[in-house]
Amino acid sequence: MLPDLHATRQRLLSGQTSAPAEIDLAIAAAQSPACAAAFVRPLFDEARAAAAQPAQAGRPLGGLSVSVKDLFDIAGQTTAAGSAVLAETPAALHDSPAVARLRAAGAALIGRTNMTEFAFSGVGVNPHHGTPANACDAAVARIPGGSSSGAAVSVATGAAFIGLGSDTGGSIRIPAALNGIVGFKNTARLVPTGGALPLSPTLDTVCAMTRSVRDAITAHELLAARTVTRSQAPLPAYRLAVARTLMLDGLEPAVARAFERTLQALRRAGARIDEIALPELAEVAGINATGGFSPPESYAWHRPLLERDAARYDPRVAARIQRGAAMAAWQYLDLVRARRDWIARMETALAGYDAVLSPTVPVVAPPIAEVAPGAARDEAFFRLNGLLLRNPSAINLLDGCALSLPCQAPGELPVGLMVWQGALRDDTVLNIALQIEQMLQKQ
Asked: Amidase domain: from which residue to which, for each copy (predicted)?
Protein backbone atom coordinates (compact mmCIF):
# COMPACT_ATOMS: atom_id res chain seq x y z
CA MET A 1 0.00 0.00 0.00
CA LEU A 2 1.32 3.44 -0.90
CA PRO A 3 1.94 5.83 2.01
CA ASP A 4 -0.61 8.58 2.32
CA LEU A 5 -0.02 12.31 2.70
CA HIS A 6 -0.20 12.19 6.50
CA ALA A 7 2.38 9.43 6.82
CA THR A 8 4.71 11.15 4.39
CA ARG A 9 4.37 14.46 6.20
CA GLN A 10 5.39 12.72 9.44
CA ARG A 11 8.46 11.34 7.71
CA LEU A 12 9.26 14.82 6.41
CA LEU A 13 8.97 16.34 9.87
CA SER A 14 11.16 13.65 11.42
CA GLY A 15 13.85 14.06 8.76
CA GLN A 16 13.40 10.57 7.32
CA THR A 17 12.73 12.00 3.86
CA SER A 18 12.66 15.34 2.05
CA ALA A 19 10.27 17.08 -0.32
CA PRO A 20 12.78 16.92 -3.24
CA ALA A 21 13.23 13.17 -2.65
CA GLU A 22 9.47 12.64 -2.57
CA ILE A 23 9.02 14.65 -5.78
CA ASP A 24 11.61 12.48 -7.50
CA LEU A 25 9.61 9.42 -6.48
CA ALA A 26 6.41 11.02 -7.74
CA ILE A 27 7.99 11.92 -11.07
CA ALA A 28 9.30 8.38 -11.46
CA ALA A 29 5.77 7.10 -10.89
CA ALA A 30 4.36 9.63 -13.38
CA GLN A 31 6.86 8.46 -16.01
CA SER A 32 6.19 4.76 -15.41
CA PRO A 33 4.13 2.60 -17.76
CA ALA A 34 1.41 2.39 -15.10
CA CYS A 35 0.83 6.13 -15.52
CA ALA A 36 0.81 6.18 -19.34
CA ALA A 37 -1.71 8.72 -20.70
CA ALA A 38 -2.54 9.95 -17.18
CA PHE A 39 -0.98 13.37 -17.82
CA VAL A 40 -1.67 15.71 -20.74
CA ARG A 41 1.00 18.15 -19.57
CA PRO A 42 3.73 17.16 -17.09
CA LEU A 43 5.07 19.97 -14.87
CA PHE A 44 8.11 18.19 -13.50
CA ASP A 45 10.50 21.16 -13.47
CA GLU A 46 7.92 23.33 -11.73
CA ALA A 47 7.26 20.56 -9.19
CA ARG A 48 10.97 20.21 -8.41
CA ALA A 49 11.25 23.97 -7.92
CA ALA A 50 8.27 24.01 -5.54
CA ALA A 51 9.65 21.07 -3.56
CA ALA A 52 12.99 22.85 -3.19
CA GLN A 53 11.41 25.79 -1.34
CA PRO A 54 12.26 25.99 2.37
CA ALA A 55 9.65 24.49 4.69
CA GLN A 56 7.23 27.07 6.07
CA ALA A 57 4.71 26.93 8.88
CA GLY A 58 1.12 26.85 7.71
CA ARG A 59 1.94 24.98 4.48
CA PRO A 60 0.58 21.49 5.23
CA LEU A 61 1.38 20.06 1.80
CA GLY A 62 5.07 20.80 2.33
CA GLY A 63 6.20 20.60 -1.28
CA LEU A 64 4.48 17.27 -1.93
CA SER A 65 2.96 16.23 -5.24
CA VAL A 66 -0.53 17.32 -6.35
CA SER A 67 -2.05 16.74 -9.79
CA VAL A 68 -4.55 19.07 -11.45
CA LYS A 69 -7.35 17.95 -13.75
CA ASP A 70 -7.14 19.64 -17.16
CA LEU A 71 -10.37 21.43 -16.26
CA PHE A 72 -8.74 24.04 -14.00
CA ASP A 73 -6.92 27.23 -14.84
CA ILE A 74 -3.23 27.38 -13.97
CA ALA A 75 -1.66 30.75 -14.66
CA GLY A 76 0.30 30.72 -17.92
CA GLN A 77 -1.25 27.50 -19.22
CA THR A 78 -4.07 26.64 -21.60
CA THR A 79 -7.10 24.92 -20.08
CA ALA A 80 -8.29 22.48 -22.75
CA ALA A 81 -10.51 20.18 -20.64
CA GLY A 82 -9.18 17.09 -22.40
CA SER A 83 -10.27 18.40 -25.80
CA ALA A 84 -8.65 19.18 -29.14
CA VAL A 85 -10.93 22.12 -29.89
CA LEU A 86 -9.56 24.24 -27.02
CA ALA A 87 -5.91 23.25 -27.41
CA GLU A 88 -4.91 26.59 -28.98
CA THR A 89 -6.87 28.90 -26.70
CA PRO A 90 -4.99 31.63 -24.78
CA ALA A 91 -3.29 30.73 -21.54
CA ALA A 92 -5.03 31.51 -18.27
CA LEU A 93 -3.99 34.72 -16.57
CA HIS A 94 -4.60 33.46 -13.03
CA ASP A 95 -4.81 30.24 -11.06
CA SER A 96 -8.32 29.03 -10.35
CA PRO A 97 -9.23 29.46 -6.66
CA ALA A 98 -8.84 25.71 -6.05
CA VAL A 99 -5.35 25.66 -7.56
CA ALA A 100 -4.39 28.85 -5.73
CA ARG A 101 -5.45 27.38 -2.38
CA LEU A 102 -3.47 24.18 -2.94
CA ARG A 103 -0.44 26.11 -4.11
CA ALA A 104 -0.64 28.40 -1.04
CA ALA A 105 -0.63 25.26 1.12
CA GLY A 106 2.70 24.20 -0.42
CA ALA A 107 1.53 21.92 -3.23
CA ALA A 108 4.06 20.97 -5.87
CA LEU A 109 1.94 20.77 -9.03
CA ILE A 110 3.27 17.75 -10.91
CA GLY A 111 1.07 18.01 -13.99
CA ARG A 112 -2.28 18.48 -15.68
CA THR A 113 -4.18 15.21 -15.80
CA ASN A 114 -6.12 13.60 -18.61
CA MET A 115 -9.91 13.47 -18.44
CA THR A 116 -13.02 12.65 -20.38
CA GLU A 117 -13.40 15.47 -22.90
CA PHE A 118 -15.28 18.34 -21.23
CA ALA A 119 -15.93 16.07 -18.21
CA PHE A 120 -19.00 14.53 -19.89
CA SER A 121 -18.76 10.80 -19.09
CA GLY A 122 -18.15 8.44 -16.20
CA VAL A 123 -16.12 5.94 -18.24
CA GLY A 124 -12.88 7.89 -18.68
CA VAL A 125 -12.19 7.24 -22.37
CA ASN A 126 -10.42 10.03 -24.29
CA PRO A 127 -9.87 9.69 -28.07
CA HIS A 128 -7.52 12.70 -28.26
CA HIS A 129 -4.94 11.90 -25.59
CA GLY A 130 -5.46 8.18 -25.09
CA THR A 131 -7.12 6.50 -22.13
CA PRO A 132 -5.10 5.92 -18.95
CA ALA A 133 -5.44 2.35 -17.77
CA ASN A 134 -6.83 1.61 -14.32
CA ALA A 135 -4.10 1.24 -11.70
CA CYS A 136 -5.61 -1.91 -10.20
CA ASP A 137 -4.71 -4.52 -12.83
CA ALA A 138 -1.31 -4.85 -14.50
CA ALA A 139 -2.50 -7.75 -16.69
CA VAL A 140 -5.66 -6.23 -18.24
CA ALA A 141 -6.07 -2.61 -19.32
CA ARG A 142 -9.29 -1.63 -17.56
CA ILE A 143 -11.23 1.62 -17.67
CA PRO A 144 -10.08 4.24 -15.16
CA GLY A 145 -13.53 5.75 -14.65
CA GLY A 146 -14.25 9.37 -15.39
CA SER A 147 -14.34 12.05 -15.89
CA SER A 148 -11.34 12.61 -13.56
CA SER A 149 -9.51 9.62 -15.06
CA GLY A 150 -5.91 10.83 -15.00
CA ALA A 151 -6.36 12.31 -11.55
CA ALA A 152 -7.34 8.91 -10.15
CA VAL A 153 -4.47 7.10 -11.85
CA SER A 154 -1.99 9.74 -10.64
CA VAL A 155 -3.04 9.15 -7.02
CA ALA A 156 -3.31 5.36 -7.27
CA THR A 157 0.14 4.95 -8.89
CA GLY A 158 2.01 7.24 -6.49
CA ALA A 159 2.45 10.22 -8.80
CA ALA A 160 0.32 12.49 -6.59
CA PHE A 161 -0.95 12.57 -3.03
CA ILE A 162 -3.97 14.68 -4.03
CA GLY A 163 -5.69 14.59 -7.40
CA LEU A 164 -7.70 17.78 -7.89
CA GLY A 165 -10.83 17.09 -9.92
CA SER A 166 -14.52 17.79 -10.29
CA ASP A 167 -17.73 15.86 -9.68
CA THR A 168 -20.93 16.68 -11.58
CA GLY A 169 -22.49 13.23 -11.54
CA GLY A 170 -19.78 11.07 -10.01
CA SER A 171 -16.56 12.18 -11.72
CA ILE A 172 -14.54 11.95 -8.49
CA ARG A 173 -16.25 8.99 -6.84
CA ILE A 174 -16.46 6.73 -9.91
CA PRO A 175 -12.71 6.70 -10.69
CA ALA A 176 -11.92 6.55 -6.96
CA ALA A 177 -14.08 3.43 -6.60
CA LEU A 178 -12.66 1.73 -9.68
CA ASN A 179 -9.02 2.48 -8.78
CA GLY A 180 -9.27 1.57 -5.11
CA ILE A 181 -8.68 5.03 -3.63
CA VAL A 182 -10.73 7.65 -1.76
CA GLY A 183 -12.85 10.32 -3.42
CA PHE A 184 -14.83 12.94 -1.52
CA LYS A 185 -17.60 15.00 -3.14
CA ASN A 186 -18.33 17.87 -0.78
CA THR A 187 -21.49 19.94 -0.77
CA ALA A 188 -21.05 21.91 -3.98
CA ARG A 189 -21.33 25.41 -2.52
CA LEU A 190 -18.40 24.88 -0.13
CA VAL A 191 -15.64 25.18 -2.76
CA PRO A 192 -15.54 27.92 -5.43
CA THR A 193 -15.89 26.69 -9.02
CA GLY A 194 -14.32 29.78 -10.60
CA GLY A 195 -11.53 29.10 -13.07
CA ALA A 196 -12.89 25.64 -13.86
CA LEU A 197 -14.51 24.99 -17.22
CA PRO A 198 -18.19 24.31 -16.49
CA LEU A 199 -20.23 21.26 -17.37
CA SER A 200 -23.37 21.95 -15.33
CA PRO A 201 -23.17 24.96 -13.00
CA THR A 202 -26.13 23.55 -11.08
CA LEU A 203 -24.29 20.33 -10.23
CA ASP A 204 -20.54 20.98 -10.65
CA THR A 205 -18.45 20.36 -7.54
CA VAL A 206 -14.73 21.02 -7.08
CA CYS A 207 -13.16 18.28 -4.95
CA ALA A 208 -10.34 15.73 -4.86
CA MET A 209 -9.12 12.14 -4.66
CA THR A 210 -6.63 10.90 -2.08
CA ARG A 211 -5.14 7.69 -0.67
CA SER A 212 -6.97 7.82 2.66
CA VAL A 213 -9.95 9.39 4.37
CA ARG A 214 -7.72 11.46 6.65
CA ASP A 215 -6.06 12.89 3.54
CA ALA A 216 -9.52 13.58 2.09
CA ILE A 217 -10.28 15.66 5.18
CA THR A 218 -7.07 17.65 4.69
CA ALA A 219 -7.74 18.19 0.99
CA HIS A 220 -11.28 19.34 1.70
CA GLU A 221 -10.15 21.72 4.41
CA LEU A 222 -7.69 23.32 2.01
CA LEU A 223 -10.08 23.54 -0.94
CA ALA A 224 -13.01 24.82 1.15
CA ALA A 225 -10.87 27.04 3.41
CA ARG A 226 -12.68 25.66 6.43
CA THR A 227 -11.95 23.33 9.35
CA VAL A 228 -13.80 20.03 9.57
CA THR A 229 -15.32 19.52 13.01
CA ARG A 230 -13.92 16.24 14.29
CA SER A 231 -16.07 13.92 16.36
CA GLN A 232 -14.89 11.40 18.94
CA ALA A 233 -18.23 9.59 18.85
CA PRO A 234 -17.76 5.83 18.29
CA LEU A 235 -19.26 4.13 15.26
CA PRO A 236 -22.23 2.69 17.24
CA ALA A 237 -23.24 6.25 18.13
CA TYR A 238 -24.30 6.89 14.55
CA ARG A 239 -27.50 5.76 12.91
CA LEU A 240 -26.82 4.45 9.41
CA ALA A 241 -29.09 3.31 6.59
CA VAL A 242 -28.88 1.14 3.50
CA ALA A 243 -31.22 2.27 0.73
CA ARG A 244 -32.80 -0.71 -1.03
CA THR A 245 -34.28 1.31 -3.91
CA LEU A 246 -32.07 1.86 -6.98
CA MET A 247 -28.70 1.69 -5.24
CA LEU A 248 -28.61 -2.13 -4.98
CA ASP A 249 -30.06 -2.90 -8.42
CA GLY A 250 -28.05 -5.09 -10.77
CA LEU A 251 -24.89 -5.38 -8.66
CA GLU A 252 -22.14 -7.50 -10.14
CA PRO A 253 -21.40 -10.47 -7.85
CA ALA A 254 -18.01 -9.05 -6.83
CA VAL A 255 -19.62 -5.76 -5.80
CA ALA A 256 -22.49 -7.45 -3.98
CA ARG A 257 -20.09 -9.68 -2.03
CA ALA A 258 -17.81 -6.82 -1.01
CA PHE A 259 -20.72 -4.62 0.03
CA GLU A 260 -22.45 -7.32 2.08
CA ARG A 261 -19.15 -8.34 3.69
CA THR A 262 -18.59 -4.69 4.68
CA LEU A 263 -22.05 -4.37 6.21
CA GLN A 264 -21.48 -7.54 8.22
CA ALA A 265 -18.14 -6.22 9.49
CA LEU A 266 -19.73 -2.92 10.46
CA ARG A 267 -22.50 -4.66 12.35
CA ARG A 268 -19.96 -6.81 14.19
CA ALA A 269 -18.23 -3.58 15.18
CA GLY A 270 -21.49 -2.36 16.71
CA ALA A 271 -22.78 -0.15 13.90
CA ARG A 272 -26.55 0.41 13.83
CA ILE A 273 -27.63 -0.08 10.22
CA ASP A 274 -31.27 -0.03 9.10
CA GLU A 275 -32.42 -1.17 5.69
CA ILE A 276 -34.88 1.37 4.32
CA ALA A 277 -36.89 1.50 1.11
CA LEU A 278 -36.27 5.20 0.33
CA PRO A 279 -38.71 5.05 -2.63
CA GLU A 280 -37.87 8.65 -3.55
CA LEU A 281 -34.77 7.32 -5.31
CA ALA A 282 -37.03 5.65 -7.87
CA GLU A 283 -38.08 9.13 -8.99
CA VAL A 284 -34.61 10.15 -10.21
CA ALA A 285 -35.04 8.74 -13.72
CA GLY A 286 -38.38 10.49 -14.14
CA ILE A 287 -37.02 13.81 -12.90
CA ASN A 288 -34.18 13.56 -15.43
CA ALA A 289 -36.35 12.17 -18.24
CA THR A 290 -35.74 15.21 -20.46
CA GLY A 291 -31.99 14.89 -20.01
CA GLY A 292 -31.26 16.46 -16.65
CA PHE A 293 -29.21 19.59 -16.05
CA SER A 294 -25.96 18.74 -17.81
CA PRO A 295 -27.09 18.72 -21.48
CA PRO A 296 -28.86 22.12 -21.56
CA GLU A 297 -26.33 23.85 -19.31
CA SER A 298 -23.35 22.49 -21.22
CA TYR A 299 -25.00 23.27 -24.56
CA ALA A 300 -25.41 26.90 -23.52
CA TRP A 301 -21.64 27.11 -23.04
CA HIS A 302 -20.60 24.97 -26.03
CA ARG A 303 -23.06 26.20 -28.68
CA PRO A 304 -20.67 28.66 -30.42
CA LEU A 305 -17.87 26.07 -30.42
CA LEU A 306 -20.11 23.32 -31.75
CA GLU A 307 -21.41 25.55 -34.53
CA ARG A 308 -17.93 26.13 -35.93
CA ASP A 309 -15.92 23.08 -34.79
CA ALA A 310 -18.17 20.14 -33.91
CA ALA A 311 -16.05 17.73 -35.97
CA ARG A 312 -13.16 18.08 -33.52
CA TYR A 313 -15.24 16.92 -30.53
CA ASP A 314 -15.36 13.38 -29.26
CA PRO A 315 -18.56 12.25 -31.06
CA ARG A 316 -19.92 10.62 -27.90
CA VAL A 317 -19.47 13.84 -25.94
CA ALA A 318 -20.86 16.05 -28.70
CA ALA A 319 -23.98 13.88 -28.93
CA ARG A 320 -24.68 14.27 -25.22
CA ILE A 321 -24.13 18.03 -25.25
CA GLN A 322 -26.30 18.52 -28.34
CA ARG A 323 -29.21 16.85 -26.55
CA GLY A 324 -29.47 20.08 -24.59
CA ALA A 325 -30.57 22.01 -27.66
CA ALA A 326 -33.91 20.22 -27.60
CA MET A 327 -34.89 21.19 -24.04
CA ALA A 328 -37.53 23.91 -23.90
CA ALA A 329 -37.36 26.67 -21.30
CA TRP A 330 -40.50 25.38 -19.58
CA GLN A 331 -38.97 21.90 -19.32
CA TYR A 332 -35.86 23.34 -17.69
CA LEU A 333 -37.92 25.32 -15.20
CA ASP A 334 -40.01 22.24 -14.44
CA LEU A 335 -36.76 20.37 -13.80
CA VAL A 336 -35.61 23.03 -11.34
CA ARG A 337 -38.92 22.86 -9.47
CA ALA A 338 -38.99 19.05 -9.48
CA ARG A 339 -35.48 18.91 -8.06
CA ARG A 340 -36.32 21.38 -5.28
CA ASP A 341 -39.39 19.36 -4.29
CA TRP A 342 -37.48 16.07 -4.43
CA ILE A 343 -34.65 17.39 -2.24
CA ALA A 344 -37.15 18.50 0.39
CA ARG A 345 -38.79 15.08 0.48
CA MET A 346 -35.43 13.27 0.54
CA GLU A 347 -34.26 15.39 3.45
CA THR A 348 -37.44 14.50 5.35
CA ALA A 349 -37.00 10.80 4.63
CA LEU A 350 -33.37 10.83 5.80
CA ALA A 351 -33.88 13.09 8.81
CA GLY A 352 -33.32 10.29 11.33
CA TYR A 353 -30.05 9.07 9.81
CA ASP A 354 -26.49 10.33 10.02
CA ALA A 355 -25.50 8.76 6.70
CA VAL A 356 -26.53 6.24 4.06
CA LEU A 357 -24.31 3.39 2.84
CA SER A 358 -24.39 2.25 -0.81
CA PRO A 359 -22.09 0.72 -3.39
CA THR A 360 -20.45 3.63 -5.21
CA VAL A 361 -20.96 1.91 -8.56
CA PRO A 362 -22.58 -1.48 -9.31
CA VAL A 363 -19.69 -2.93 -11.35
CA VAL A 364 -15.95 -3.45 -11.21
CA ALA A 365 -13.83 -1.85 -13.93
CA PRO A 366 -14.31 -3.64 -17.29
CA PRO A 367 -11.58 -3.80 -19.96
CA ILE A 368 -11.05 -0.65 -22.02
CA ALA A 369 -11.36 -2.75 -25.17
CA GLU A 370 -15.07 -3.26 -24.49
CA VAL A 371 -15.82 0.48 -24.78
CA ALA A 372 -12.90 1.89 -26.80
CA PRO A 373 -13.78 4.64 -29.31
CA GLY A 374 -15.69 3.29 -32.29
CA ALA A 375 -19.31 3.27 -33.41
CA ALA A 376 -19.52 -0.51 -33.02
CA ARG A 377 -18.97 -0.14 -29.27
CA ASP A 378 -21.20 2.88 -28.68
CA GLU A 379 -24.08 0.84 -27.28
CA ALA A 380 -21.81 -0.84 -24.72
CA PHE A 381 -20.23 2.51 -23.85
CA PHE A 382 -23.50 4.29 -23.13
CA ARG A 383 -24.90 1.32 -21.20
CA LEU A 384 -21.80 1.25 -18.99
CA ASN A 385 -21.81 5.02 -18.61
CA GLY A 386 -25.38 4.90 -17.33
CA LEU A 387 -24.50 2.18 -14.81
CA LEU A 388 -21.48 4.06 -13.49
CA LEU A 389 -23.39 7.32 -13.06
CA ARG A 390 -26.56 5.86 -11.57
CA ASN A 391 -25.70 5.77 -7.87
CA PRO A 392 -23.34 8.74 -7.49
CA SER A 393 -25.39 11.13 -9.66
CA ALA A 394 -28.35 10.84 -7.27
CA ILE A 395 -26.20 12.59 -4.65
CA ASN A 396 -25.48 15.47 -7.03
CA LEU A 397 -29.20 15.83 -7.71
CA LEU A 398 -29.68 15.88 -3.92
CA ASP A 399 -27.08 18.67 -3.58
CA GLY A 400 -25.51 16.32 -1.09
CA CYS A 401 -22.09 15.13 -0.04
CA ALA A 402 -20.56 11.67 -0.39
CA LEU A 403 -17.29 9.84 0.08
CA SER A 404 -16.18 6.67 -1.71
CA LEU A 405 -13.64 4.44 -0.01
CA PRO A 406 -12.38 1.00 -1.02
CA CYS A 407 -14.05 -1.99 0.63
CA GLN A 408 -12.79 -4.98 -1.38
CA ALA A 409 -10.70 -7.78 0.14
CA PRO A 410 -7.01 -8.15 -0.76
CA GLY A 411 -6.56 -9.59 -4.23
CA GLU A 412 -10.00 -8.50 -5.44
CA LEU A 413 -10.73 -5.81 -8.01
CA PRO A 414 -11.58 -2.49 -6.34
CA VAL A 415 -15.10 -1.89 -5.03
CA GLY A 416 -16.20 1.43 -3.58
CA LEU A 417 -18.37 1.96 -0.51
CA MET A 418 -20.24 5.28 -0.71
CA VAL A 419 -21.09 7.09 2.53
CA TRP A 420 -23.56 9.90 1.81
CA GLN A 421 -26.12 12.39 3.08
CA GLY A 422 -27.72 15.68 2.07
CA ALA A 423 -26.28 19.17 1.86
CA LEU A 424 -23.89 20.46 4.51
CA ARG A 425 -23.59 17.11 6.29
CA ASP A 426 -19.97 16.93 5.12
CA ASP A 427 -18.33 16.72 8.53
CA THR A 428 -20.55 13.88 9.68
CA VAL A 429 -19.93 11.93 6.47
CA LEU A 430 -16.17 12.43 6.81
CA ASN A 431 -16.12 11.38 10.48
CA ILE A 432 -18.16 8.25 9.77
CA ALA A 433 -16.02 7.36 6.73
CA LEU A 434 -12.86 7.76 8.80
CA GLN A 435 -14.14 5.26 11.35
CA ILE A 436 -15.28 2.83 8.65
CA GLU A 437 -11.86 2.99 7.00
CA GLN A 438 -10.12 2.28 10.31
CA MET A 439 -12.45 -0.63 10.98
CA LEU A 440 -11.88 -2.14 7.53
CA GLN A 441 -8.11 -1.83 7.87
CA LYS A 442 -8.28 -4.06 10.95
CA GLN A 443 -10.10 -6.86 9.12
From this structure: 37-430
